[in-house]
Amino acid sequence: MDIDEDKIDEAVLALLYLTLHDGARAWKSFDWEAMNRLHEKGLIGSPVGKAKSVLFTENGLKESERLFQKLFAKD
Question: Which InterPro entries match (predicted)?
Answer without folding.
Answer: DUF6429
